[in-house]
Amino acid sequence: MEKITAITNGLISENSLQLIRAFPNPVSEFLFLEGAEVINDNRISVEVTDISGKKLGNAQVISRDSGRGIEWKWESGFFLLKISTENQPLKVIKVIAEK
């Protein structure tokens, strides 16, 4: 498995990204993201691709009373979320959507 690192507050953290998770999975309306300080960073970006890697769009991370995440606007299927900050890739998460 490829080693992934993140820069948080100017420090590199290799293990914090292992804790990033997305739920519920399968998703229908809102996908919560949690587990690392970078999720709370307003500079985080989430690119959504289909399973073949074709870019479908970007998702804006928003805050709700129950946590941070993205509004799911894509149809049913298998997807990859490419999470990054300031153009530095952080993690890829597989997601199943059921509409």
Primary descriptors:
single chain, 99 residues, mainly beta, Immunoglobulin-like, four-stranded antiparallel beta sheet, disordered N terminus
Summed over residues and divided by their number, the pLDDT gives a mean of: 81
CATH class: Mainly Beta
Q: How widely separated are the two ends?
A: 32 Å
Radius of gyration (CA) equals 13 Å
Residue share in β-strands: over 45%
Order of helices and strands: EEEEEEEEEE
Please, what is the oligomeric state?
single chain
- Record the strand order, biggest sheet: 3-4-8-7
Shape: globular
Structural class based on helices, strands and sheet pairing? mainly beta
Number of strands: 10
Number of domains: 1
The tally of helices reads 0
Question: Describe the biggest sheet?
Answer: 4 strands, antiparallel
- What fold name stands as the CATH topology? Immunoglobulin-like
Low-confidence stretches: 1-12
CATH structural architecture: Sandwich
What percent of the residues sit in helical stretches (DSSP H or I)? under 10%
